[in-house]
Amino acid sequence: MPTINGSVFMPSVLTLIGIPGLESVQCWIGIPFSVMYLTAVIGNSLILAIIKWENSLHKPMYIFLAMLGTTDIALSTCILPKMLGIFWFHLPNIYFESCLLQMWLIHSFQAIESGVLLAMALDRYVAICNPLRHATIFSQQLLIHIGVAVTLRAAILITPSILLIKCCLKFYRTAIISHSYCEHMALVKLAVDDIRVNKIYGLFVAFTILGFDIIFITLSYVQIFITVFQLPQKEARLKAFNTCIAHICVFLQFYLLAFFSFFTHRFGSHIPPYVHILLSNLYLLVPPFLNPIVYGVKTKQIRDHVLRMLVFRKIS
User: Fold this and answer.
1) Consecutive H or E run containing 114
2) Mean pLDDT of the chain, nearest integer
3) Alpha-carbon distance 143 to 59, whole Å?
């Protein structure tokens, strides 16, 4: 690997050290992480199977839930196998191109998940505020367009950040990344070259995706609450509100973790590094872990089908 003035020129292999400061207990940290991953894969796969098999669930709300479950499985699978390789099997090395691919996949799936959450909020807005037009507005063609749009938005906005690293950052102080996966700023900060463009574009993408989505989600739910509280009957208000509880829980845990991780990583210089890394890991692992639990408990149709499957297996 060529070096110039102590810097490394385009390292072919990078080393992920895991969680700096907690190397001695990483093997134990991997246990709850692996449980969260298995729960995420099994829970989301179960929801996907139920939605696929039950024709009564082929509605926009559940189709968006299937999109969310698919994204959650893909997102957690992008990060955890390699992370457990570091924690349990002492396999920290990763090819530079593989690191960029993992980075692109992780940030793209994060952006897709945010877009799906926005679509779910708009679906609830139309269903509650304009129910007579819901079936007309959220047609099958629109659902396909939404799926393609959120995927293309993620790919188009994330790709330039990868190209900026590949084409503009040639020299690195070290090939060791103080992280448990290939995160954008963790890699960019290793470069000797000027990284201002990378930082600015990273902030632009974060605020374009998360900022745009959270503004419209908030506006949708403000209008939903106004409409719900104007309903004359208490039972109708409770029923309408109950259809939104699961969505609200998912929105809050996703965006609160996202912004807490984002701001501590960039502006929390006084916070120990292992706190940054743990927050980043939890941001990626907690939503896929909690989403199927939240929807399984709070969504009656999903809960009923799960109970029916369990009872049928017990009888047989």
Assistant:
1) helix 96-129
2) 88
3) 10
